[in-house]
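INFO batch 0412 | record 1 of 1 | parsing
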Amino acid sequence: MLVQISAIIAAVAFVFLVFYLIQTLKSLKHSLDEITLTMGQMKNEVAQISAEVQDVILNTNEMAIDVRGKLSKLNHLFSSVHDVGQVIHELTSSVKQSATSLVSAVKHTQPLSTKWKTILQGAAISYEMLQKMKTKKSPQAGAMK
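INFO prediction complete | emitting C-alpha cells
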C-alpha cells in the first residue's frame, strides 16, 4: 500500500510537472514567435535603411566631386588674385621709388629760374580758364536737351 500511495504521489507530481512544463513551453513558443516576427520586421527595415544609406552615400559622393571642382576653380581664381596683387605691389613700389627720387631731385635743384616760374604761372592760368569754359558750357548743354 505504501508503494501504491508513493506511486500515486509520483504520478500526481509528474502530472503537475508536465502541466507546468507545457505552460512554460507554450510561453517559450509565444516568445519565439514574437522574436521571429520582430526579426522579420527588422529585416525589412534594415533593407529600407540600407537603400536610404546607399542613396545618401551616392549624394555625398556627388557633392564631394562638385565641391572638389569648385575648389579647383577657386584655386585658379585665388592664384590670379595673388598675381594681380603682386603686380599692384610692384607698380606701387616703382611709383613710390620714382616719387622719392623726384622729390630728392627737386630738393637738390637750384631755385626755379624766372623762365620756369613764368611757364608754371601760364599753365595755372590756362587751367583756370579751361575750368571756367567748362562751367560756362555745362548750363548751355543742359538747356539744349
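INFO post-check: The radius of gyration is 51 Å.
INFO record closed
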